Amino acid sequence: MRKVPMPEPRQVEFPDFCCKPTLILGCGNSLFGDDGFGCALVEYLEAHYTLPEEVCLLDVGTGARKLLFTLCLSPVRPQRVLILDALDMGRDPGELFEIAPEDIPAIKCDDFSLHQLPTSNLLRELEKQCGVEVRVLACQTAPLPEEVRPGLSDPVLRALPRAAELIAARLFPAASVARRGGPEDERAR
Description:
Layout: H1 16-19, E1 22-27, H2 37-48, E2 49-50, E3 55-61, H3 64-73, E4 80-87, E5 96-99, H4 106-109, H5 119-128, E6 133-140, H6 154-171, E7 178-179
Parallel strand pairs: 1-3, 1-4, 4-6
Antiparallel strand pairs: 2-7, 5-6
């Protein structure tokens, strides 16, 4: 049997989420109130900002695990990953805060949220084993509904423009986003 040589990593096409220096992932379940914060923030950024070429912005909903697993195994990966998510840390609803993957509370790893269960371990592996800078921008939720109820609470909705400004100004200044002209989304103010 003739051996076929494996192509070099540079010869293989990789998706943007592997190739671009900055990857921003909006996580959450939009069907359960404020748990959809990360997804809503991606939508807000897409509507109000022009991202530079070196940034890949994705709404991954509850499917972050497969993407992060791919990144851990890929020979090509971003330099930094920013996770946008909702957390209940006992703060005021709508409060924004940054945490490192190792600071994700143990209770969050064991809750019903499908997008968190294995994800925190993969984030830590990306950071420690793969050398990727990983941060989480979180928003404190109001109480989450027990049944399907789409839509963000007013405090979390008002946090969207502030979160977008944080991303643009502080979190990744080398990959800052340009504000689009046009009317503001009054509901998010």
